[in-house]
Amino acid sequence: MPARKVSVTTIQVSAATRDRLYKLKFRKTYDDFLQQLCDLYEQAQGEK
User: Fold this and answer.
1) 21 phi-psi bin (left φ>0, alpha ψ -120 to 50, beta other)
2) Which of 7, 19, 33, 40 is most enclosed, with most CB atoms within 10 A?
3) This prediction's pTM
4) What is the torsional sign of CA 19, 28, 6, 42?
5) How far is CA 45 from CA 3, 16, 40, in A?
6) CA-atom Rg of the chain in angstroms
7) pLDDT in tens, 21-46
């Protein structure tokens, strides 16, 4: 079975933000971590 091609892009963050993200994402890819963060944000917005 061929690997699924995923469309990706880049974002720019400061070195300080990158370092904070690295500490928070423990054993996840950045994409997985940011998806989870977006989900949490959307849930929090729905509770308002």
Assistant:
1) alpha
2) 33
3) 0.68
4) negative
5) 35, 26, 9
6) 14
7) 999 988 999 999 999 999 999 999 98
